[in-house]
Q: What sequence folds into this?
């Protein structure tokens, strides 16, 4: 008892018999309980002791029968003024029925006066239970305060934050998500996110969540695009972190950060670069290329005149003419490389066909291009350029580093996805990287895939390498004007 109880306890003893009061005090003192006693025998004195905030009682002992004042009336006062303080009846006239009535009324316990040896144990148990209740209540208050604090902090974040259970049902949502969904909290709690946010991207995120529950791995900064009902495109990064209870995943905490402005800035920077490349390509083709072509025509005339008047110079002029023809071809190739995709002349498929031919000629290997039966929609020029550059990087790697002899480029629409694959029969990606080959090209391809709102995988199906890019078609199409609406915001 000394280890569990404070050094000195404050007890209020309601007892009209002085001898009984002394016996009670002696019994507790004999068992090592240090008590600061307040002995009262009337209702008013008892009430004053209860109201004394300077010396609040730790426990109350009361007789059941007193002149003009009984124990049940005292118990009602305690429940009103000190509901957390244990109340023990110590009486010689308390029968079984009264004892049951007293306990139902809120008494902690009772001890008969002819069995006072039980009193220390009963007191100790009552004080221990009271302390545990008090600590539990304090913990609940602290927990509620923490919950309110965390709820306020989460609601104040600009990022979307939510939590789901193992059935992907929402258990926590913040204000940013509710504002995005334009729904009230009670309308989303307990439901799957895909039920209240019916978007293909959300279904994909929930599918990934199933793998997180199995593996326990965190998925961070996955970029996804969402088309709003008014046709605007909003970009988000998703992070999903397992919520564990003793190493068991019991849910996920997810954050969604909008990066629409960041993506727009990145796109604008890339578009500036693309515009500058197209301008340089146009200047090369229409400026230097045309001037070289004109010079070639003049040289042809000179060659014909020299063939008649000074044949000894004809061979030299022919060499100059050949060099000039090669310079014209190089200029055209350079111009085409700066602006590889021309939407007015076949678009991406035509550009990939030319890439296959050029790869065959340049690297002396067999490079082919195929496309699916489904007609491709008109792609936005920036998106088409990203796709072309990915194919260009992949074919270059296959020829230079993988020592491939065949390369197959395939472009097709599958449902609502556009798929670009480049397969070769070389030594494989892992072998190439193991030989210290540069890996910057892979990172650039991954970056371009993210800019398209898609995913890219690098596979090694037994022999060679297969690179597969998959992106949503609705993010790649050319923006068109519709009546009553502004142009859709460019995504790629």
A:
């Amino acid at each position: 008892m000394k280890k569990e109880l404070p050094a000195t306890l404050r007890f209020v003893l309601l007892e009209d018999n002085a001898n009984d009061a002394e016996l009670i005090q002696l019994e507790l003192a004999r068992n090592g309980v240090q008590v600061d006693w307040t002995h009262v025998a009337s209702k008013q004195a008892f009430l004053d002791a209860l109201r004394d905030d300077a010396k609040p009682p730790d426990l109350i002992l009361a007789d059941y029968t007193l002149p003009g004042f009984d124990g049940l009336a005292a118990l009602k006062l305690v429940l009103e003024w000190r509901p957390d303080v244990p109340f023990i009846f110590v009486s010689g006239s308390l029968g079984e029925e009264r004892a049951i009535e007293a306990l139902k009324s809120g008494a902690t316990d009772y001890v008969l006066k002819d069995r006072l040896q039980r009193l220390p144990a009963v007191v100790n148990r009552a004080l221990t239970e009271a302390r545990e209740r008090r600590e539990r209540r304090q913990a609940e208050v602290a927990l509620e305060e923490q919950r309110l604090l965390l709820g306020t902090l989460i609601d104040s974040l600009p990022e979307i934050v939510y939590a789901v259970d193992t059935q992907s049902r929402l258990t926590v949502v913040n204000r940013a998500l509710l504002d995005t969904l334009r729904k009230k909290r009670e309308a989303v709690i307990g439901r799957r996110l895909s039920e209240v946010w019916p978007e293909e991207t959300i279904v994909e995120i929930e599918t990934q969540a199933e793998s997180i529950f199995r593996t326990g791995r965190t998925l961070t900064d996955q970029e996804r695009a969402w088309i709003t009902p008014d046709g605007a495109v909003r970009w988000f990064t998703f992070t999903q972190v397992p919520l564990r209870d003793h190493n068991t995943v019991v849910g996920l905490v997810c954050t969604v950060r909008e990066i629409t402005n960041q993506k727009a800035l990145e796109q604008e920077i890339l578009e500036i670069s693309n515009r500058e490349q197209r301008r340089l390509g146009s200047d090369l083709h229409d400026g230097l290329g045309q001037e070289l072509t004109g010079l070639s025509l003049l040289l042809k005339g000179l060659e014909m005149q020299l063939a008649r008047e000074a044949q000894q110079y004809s061979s030299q002029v022919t060499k100059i003419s050949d060099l000039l023809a090669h310079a014209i071809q190089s200029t055209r190739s350079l111009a085409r490389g700066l602006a590889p995709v021309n939407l007015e002349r076949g678009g991406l498929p035509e550009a990939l066909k030319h890439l296959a031919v050029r790869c065959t000629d340049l690297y002396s290997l067999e490079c082919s291009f195929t496309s699916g039966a489904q007609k491709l929609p008109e792609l936005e020029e920036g998106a088409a350029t990203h796709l072309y550059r990915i194919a260009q990087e992949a074919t270059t790697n296959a020829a230079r580093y993988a020592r491939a002899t065949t390369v197959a480029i395939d472009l097709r629409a599958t449902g609502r996805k556009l798929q670009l694959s480049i397969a070769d029969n070389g030594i494989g990606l892992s072998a190439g990287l193991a030989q210290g080959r540069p890996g910057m090209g892979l990172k650039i391809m991954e970056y371009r895939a993210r800019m398209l709102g898609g995913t890219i995988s690098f596979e090694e199906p037994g022999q060679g390498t297969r690179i597969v890019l998959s992106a949503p078609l609705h993010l790649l199409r050319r923006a068109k004007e519709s009546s009553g609406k502004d142009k859709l915001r460019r995504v790629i």
Remarks:
- The chain has four domains: 9-139, 157-258, 261-339, 346-492.
- Residues 261-339 form one domain.
